[in-house]
Amino acid sequence: MAGPLTGYRVLDMSRVLAGPWAGQLLADLGADVIKVERPKVGDDTRHWGPPYLKDTAGNDTEDAAYFFSANRGKRSLTVDITQPEGQDIIRKLAAKVDVLIENYKVGGLAKYGLDYSSLEKVNPKLVYCSITGFGQTGPYAQRPGYDFLIQGMAGLMSVTGEPDSQNGGGPTKVGVAVTDIFTGLYAANAIQGALLERHHSGMGQYIDLALLDVQAAVMANQASNYLIGGQIPGRLGNAHPNIVPYQAFATLDSHIIVAVGNDQQFQRFCQVIGEPTWADDQRYATNTARVNNRVTLCGQITKHLKQQTSQYWLSKFEDHAVPCGPINTIDQVFDDPQIQSRNMVLTMQDTRAGDLKLVANPINYSRSQIEYDLAPPQLGNQTIEILQEYLQYAEITVKGLASNDII
To answer: % helix / strand / coil in the chain, to the nearest 5?
Structure first.
């Protein structure tokens, strides 16, 4: 079976992570995705190194490892959209695609006649997705927005990191640009929703996505703790605000995660660490009681767990169906037999490096396929192919555009 989006065409004019993440997901699902890049420069992340992709001789190529995380399945078209000829190419392509993704600043494409109001005239069925830091409206609309800024502004850093009272306390960003990634996932969902709606209306539409809105939305239970419970969450390090014990604990040789999600699991946990009476102690018998007595309980748990190694406790807890796990480094993640059995490492071919290892898409359909036909593209490698395939440009036309640095 082909991918579920086979036959759909996407013009990906976005850069860095949020938009490209959405475009890559659509490509994995079978869409034909054209990545529009600046001639000679390309996506910013091509230069966000080291590390860089190495060729078969061990030399750095021009593309940073970062770029490969979000651009699988796409063909690269280089176009200078500041030039009228370049704008004409984009308009002609927009007339032939189903989706356009862009993350230019508010109004940035209007001066080139490439905004939604201009392009819907040439393609009323176009689904046009704009991704910005703060959205198309509101007092911050003109501000530039980056993941790190948004993690702070939307509250994520206020609940990430150790409390100020602890050694090393203070706000901490997440180690991956999760706001960008969440925005990419919301974008891909919004686009597919608009495509489904188009079957009924026959019309495309405009999608306005803001990183700030997305991060506020994915504060999830922490947001509800405030909106419903009136509590302003703070930083608890690795602890959970609503469940105890649900955090990382030091052991004799490292740390492990214990994730006790209900009272039955807590009873088994108490048996393993040799404190069965805790399960009947009014201070700890229910999750509500454990949350209210978090400091006392977790202090006692730590004393117990520090008596044995991580592997000892992991084996004991697993034997008694107590949710637990190690804190793996990235190399340990991809050496993990579960990750390997789930085929989460994908090997593709790059003409410079040979075998290219990427993280696979985690979606597993029963019939449809995830498509891995194209490795992340070299800058502009498919420009001529796309112009001839989509727009039927003659060879002499393409040469003229190249000689004038339009492509």
So the answer is: 40, 15, 45
Tell which residue, 76, 120, 73, has the closest CA to residue 99: 120
Instruction: Name residue 290's amino acid.
Output: R
What are 213's two structure tokens? Answer: 């809105």
Provide the residue range defining the domain that includes 20. 9-218+360-403
DSSP state string for 298-362: HHHHHHHHTTS-HHHHHHHHHHTT--EEE---HHHHHH-HHHHHTT-EEEEEETTTEEEEEEPP-
Residue 348 lies in a domain: no
pLDDT digit string (tens) for 61-75? 999 999 999 999 999
Q: Is 213 a catalytic residue?
A: no
Residues linked to residue 405 through DSSP beta bridges, in sequence order: none
Residue 154 inside a domain? The answer is: yes
CATH number of the domain at 33, please. 3.40.50.10540
Domain count, the chain: 2
In a domain, 1, yes or no: no
**What is the value of pTM for the model shown?**
0.93
Are residues 146 and 259 located together in one domain of the fold?
no
Q: State the distance between the two ends of the chain, measured CA to CA, in whole angstroms.
A: 36
Catalytic residue among 32, 43, 180, 213: 180
CB atoms within 10 A of CB 196: 9
